[in-house]
Amino acid sequence: AQSVTQPDIHITVSEGASLELRCNYSYGATPYLFWYVQSPGQGLQLLLKYFSGDTLVQGIKGFEAEFKRSQSSFNLRKPSVHWSDAAEYFCAVGADTGGFKTIFGAGTRLFVKA
Amino acid sequence: DGGITQSPKYLFRKEGQNVTLSCEQNLNHDAMYWYRQDPGQGLRLIYYSQIVNDFQKGDIAEGYSVSREKKESFPLTVTSAQKNPTAFYLCASSQPGLDHEQFFGPGTRLTVL
């Protein structure tokens, strides 16, 4: 069965510092991998996705993620964080098992300090 | 503008009452989903529908019901059998063949008094 682990419940970074949010997944084959962002009280917005090809994926808002099959990881990175990046971030893994299902991690809340 | 709408944004209900949450999309997507979100638990799948007039239970379907009579609509009923219904509910849609990206509505916060 698919599963997703986001080891960090919350992370605090200074504005202008770099960011890396961790995500590990469990799935037998190459999954579809996603990162979503959620502002408080809002729905989720897709940042980026991976299902094949180049393992370094570029997304919106200056985010990128790297798929590492050997480590079953799909970590999200941003070189310089802005105060507006404060939000909750969800990693998700999807697979077509007789109907496509997406499993979400528990989320990592990002705090940005001035 | 294409997107997903959910109404109402806030909903209060007394214990023992059923309540229906609305979800409408104009993206022409075949698949629609309902998730429940609780603090620290991410999103959990309640029900999903791959096509009109068909739907499947997700991981936490007990105490919920859905219908999919029209492609654009996927209402969720929270019944009195749901033991702990206070939560944030999110509706999403996707189109197979578009990398399974899900588009989310703004959510409905349900509070049981």
Structural description of this entry:
The complex is a heterodimer of chains A (114) and B (113). Chain A is 0% helix and 55% strand. Chain A has strands at residues 3-5, 10-14, 19-21, 24-26, 32-38, 44-50, 56-58, 64-68, 73-78, 87-96, 100-104, 108-113. With 113 residues, chain B is mainly β. Helices cover 0% and strands 50% of the residues of chain B. The radius of gyration of chain B is 13 Å and the shape is globular. Chain B is built from no helices and eleven strands. Chain B has strands spanning 4-7, 10-13, 19-25, 31-37, 43-51, 54-57, 64-66, 76-78, 87-94, 103-104, 108-112.
What attributes does this structure have?
heterodimer; A: about 110 residues; mainly beta; 6-stranded mixed sheet; 4-stranded antiparallel sheet; 12 strands; about 0% helix; about 55% strand; B: about 110 residues; 7-stranded mixed sheet; globular
Give the overall shape of chain B. globular
Measured between the Cα atoms of the first and last residue of chain A, the distance is: 41 Å
- Helix proportion of residues of chain A, in percent? under 10%
Radius of gyration of chain B: 13 Å
- Low-pLDDT stretches of chain A are none
Category from helices, strands and their pairing of chain B? mainly beta
Helix content of chain B: under 10%
The major beta sheet of chain B can be summarized as: 7 strands, mixed
Task: Give the overall average pLDDT of chain A.
Answer: 92
SSE order of chain B, as H and E?
EEEEEEEEEEE
Put the structure in a nutshell:
The complex is a heterodimer of chains A (114) and B (113). With 114 residues, chain A is mostly beta strands. In chain A, 0% of the residues lie in helices and 55% in strands.
